[in-house]
Specification:
This protein is of the alpha+beta class. It has two helices and six strands.
Amino acid sequence: MSLLDVELEKEYLVQDIESEDEELKKFLFTLGCYKGEPVTVINKLRRNLILSIKDARYSIDLNLAKQIRV
């Protein structure tokens, strides 16, 4: 399932990043979002998700959230 389908405030492990864009994968890696890493969706907004990764919070758009499989 993607990050769009998860419950709020529940920790999940990243299973895969479904994108062919290597720059995007590198960007997510710098945030700490890579396979095997725990991620928590803190809040779902209209056009964004607020994520907690490694004790930091990030806002990502829904298109990116669809590509992150947990």
